[in-house]
């Protein structure tokens, strides 16, 4: 069973560390055999959110994770991640790889905007001395670029759309969402943007250009939520920039990160040289002989400059923030036997599913199998053993048995 259909797009200027972030986030830190956690298509791979595995909470010795991975009591649930073509200013006009960028953007549910907190890359991605470019400006430029792109699409045919909506008394949310459905914009996104922009109930034909722009900004925030990754915090001087990013980009999650450190740690863990669970504040050397003296030096730098200083490399936190905070997902575990927490074959907690918060027991049944959804009778919360109805709202970490009349 596929864990989710979430797609995160890694965006940003050239040379800020997008590909390094992508490689780190999609590198599995343990050997897991031939599971389908590999590259799906060029530039698309599997990243993982990290969440407490219910086997630990339930006091079980182990689990048999199947569509996900359990490392040290942490469940890693896959989500798709895309390394988006580098964005240059003017991309919405088709400059540089503009069109490809916009096509990637269309498909993403949320964006991880990587900026170079060391300020060592120019607007065009040319390496410079650290501190010579402003990452706050960089983040704003990227957001503006996305806004311009959305605006150009919303404006196209605006007159006709506003007539249709205003005259046919179609709801604006529905009319606008229909127009933008190819961009992954839903009715709910539009409704939220209308409310945030204070434009609910105002006839579309009466919107000023300024109001349209305000709406587009809110629409971007609703439909393509952004986590800002302040990358390269291992470089001296990056801390100042991180603090400014946090202050200037209020309302956005800004995560300090060292993608390079995370990539290094995951690869060392995979080789069996260190024990490291992605997202942890520390690692442990398990086989000294697998490390060169250069690697040992690098490890101690990672420890000092990244882990001890920042608490983690930030890569895992960024993925978790995108999925759990910005996209508001919950992780749920369907089981067949609510007492042993197993599926039909006796596998313990095999599957973790990511669903939008607000999903119900019945929604879960449909995700597992259409027939289960159709013939849903009731469900059982396997942790409390309580019977729950179809409209029960699933909570993060729930373990659920579906009872249906399907045969
Ligand atoms: N110091 C440091 N360098 C990094 C980090 N992440 C990436 N880099 C370096 O930045 C350069 C550009 O990285 P890359 O991932 O190719 O950037 P992209 O063009 O945005 O995909 C490479 O030399 C990386 O090794 C980091 O966290 N710290
Ligand atoms: Mg790249």
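^ Assign residues to that structure.
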């Amino acid at each position: 069973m596929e864990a989710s259909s979430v797609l995160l797009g890694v965006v940003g200027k050239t040379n800020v560390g997008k590909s390094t972030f992508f490689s780190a986030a999609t590198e599995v830190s343990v050997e897991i055999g031939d599971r389908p956690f590999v590259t799906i298509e060029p530039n698309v791979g599997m990243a993982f959110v990290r969440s407490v595995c219910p086997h630990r909470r339930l006091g079980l010795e182990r689990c048999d994770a199947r569509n996900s991975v359990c490392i040290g009591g942490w469940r890693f649930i896959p989500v798709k991640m895309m390394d988006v073509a580098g964005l240059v200013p003017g991309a919405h006009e088709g400059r540089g790889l503009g069109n490809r960028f916009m096509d990637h953007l269309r498909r993403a549910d949320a964006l991880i905007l990587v900026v170079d907190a060391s300020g060592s890359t120019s607007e065009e991605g040319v390496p410079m001395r650290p501190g010579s470019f402003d990452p706050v400006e960089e983040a704003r430029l990227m957001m503006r670029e996305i806004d311009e792109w959305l605006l150009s699409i919303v404006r196209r045919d605006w007159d006709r759309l506003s007539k249709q909506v205003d005259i046919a008394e179609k709801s604006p949310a529905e009319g606008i969402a229909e127009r933008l459905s190819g961009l992954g914009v839903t009715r709910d996104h539009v409704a939220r943007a209308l409310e945030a922009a204070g434009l609910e109930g105002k006839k579309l034909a009466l919107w000023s250009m300024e109001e349209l722009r305000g709406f587009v900004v809110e629409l971007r925030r609703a439909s393509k939520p952004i986590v800002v990754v302040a990358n390269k915090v291992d470089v001296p001087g990056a801390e100042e920039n991180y603090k400014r990013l946090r202050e200037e980009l209020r309302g956005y999650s800004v995560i300090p990160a060292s993608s390079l450190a995370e990539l290094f740690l995951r690869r060392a863990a995979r080789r069996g040289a260190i024990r490291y669970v992605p997202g942890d504040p520390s690692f442990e050397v398990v086989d000294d002989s697998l490390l060169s003296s250069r690697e040992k030096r690098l490890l101690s730098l990672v420890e000092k400059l990244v882990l001890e200083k920042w608490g983690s490399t930030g890569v895992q936190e960024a993925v978790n923030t995108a999925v759990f905070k910005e996209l508001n997902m919950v992780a749920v575990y369907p089981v067949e036997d609510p007492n042993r927490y197993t599926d039909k074959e006796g596998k313990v907690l095999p599957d973790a599913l990511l669903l939008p918060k607000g999903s119900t027991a019945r929604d879960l049944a449909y995700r597992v199998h259409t027939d289960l959804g159709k013939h849903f009778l009731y469900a059982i919360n396997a942790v409390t053993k309580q019977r729950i109805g179809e409209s029960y709202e699933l909570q993060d970490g729930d373990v659920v048995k579906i009872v249906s009349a399907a045969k």
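Residues 135-155 form the longest helix (21 residues).
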